[in-house]
């Protein structure tokens, strides 16, 4: 395994957090690629909009 890819285990990551992240990624992909919504990049990837 590449040591640069290793991430320490985060005990605060729950299945709810993972589900929220998956839903966010899914919404981003649908918005950008299926609907052609270029604003999805700003809406889903802007760190100030967490």
Description of the structure:
With 50 residues, this protein is mainly alpha-helical. It has a domain at 16-49. It has helices at 15-34, 39-45. Helix 1 runs antiparallel to helix 2. The radius of gyration is 14 Å and the shape is elongated. The protein starts with 14 loop residues before the first helix and ends in a 5-residue tail after the last helix.
Write the layout of secondary structure elements.
Blueprint: H1 15-34, H2 39-45
Helix pairs in contact: 1-2
Strand % is: under 5%
Helix content: 40-55%
Largest sheet: none
Global Rg:
14 Å
Number of strands: 0
Instruction: Give the overall average pLDDT.
Output: 83
The end-to-end span amounts to 30 Å
Regions with little confidence, pLDDT below 50 for 5+ residues: none
Q: Which structural class matches the secondary elements?
A: mainly alpha
Oligomer: single chain
Q: Categorize the overall geometry.
A: elongated
Q: Given the structure, what is the number of helices? A: 2
Helix/strand order, N-terminal first: HH
What's the quick description here?
The chain has 50 residues and is an all-alpha fold.
How would you describe this structure in keywords?
elongated; mainly alpha; 0% strand; 50 residues
